[in-house]
């Protein structure tokens, strides 16, 4: 399984310059895990910059993946990851989820650039 970070989903939905690279990770949505915080981030960004309808369409796509709720185990692991690597809260939750579910992360977010289990899309 793989986690496509918010930056990847937004790039994909906006048909940005890296959309094709992210599309390759999204060919089989049953193999994509999505931390709930990514649903929040993607909806908020698309809702703010486009329209509510576009944001709801994006959420419908995200729901075709394995959406992972934030539970106590992941929250505590995220706190440790944040302390160890200086990650902001949302990124720490994404990274802790990836570790808990043994997933790689596909992202263009520089906060993840030098971490293990990250497929950095430039």
Description:
With 122 residues, the chain is α/β, with parallel strands linked by helices. The chain has one domain: 5'-nuclease (Rossmann fold, 3-Layer(aba) Sandwich). 54% of the residues lie in helices and 14% in strands. It has a 5-stranded parallel beta sheet with strand order 3-2-1-4-5. Helix 1 crosses helix 2, helix 1 packs parallel to helix 3 and helix 5 crosses helix 6. The chain is globular, with a radius of gyration of 13 Å. The protein starts with a strand and ends with a strand.
Features:
122 residues, alpha/beta, Rossmann fold, five-stranded parallel sheet, 6 helices, 14% strand
Number of domains: 1
Number of strands: 5
Query: What is the CA–CA distance across the termini?
Result: 21 Å
Name given to the CATH homologous superfamily: 5'-nuclease
Biggest sheet strand line-up = 3-2-1-4-5
| Helix and strand element order | EHHEHHEHHEE
Instruction: Give me the secondary-structure category.
Output: alpha/beta
* Strand portion: 5-15%
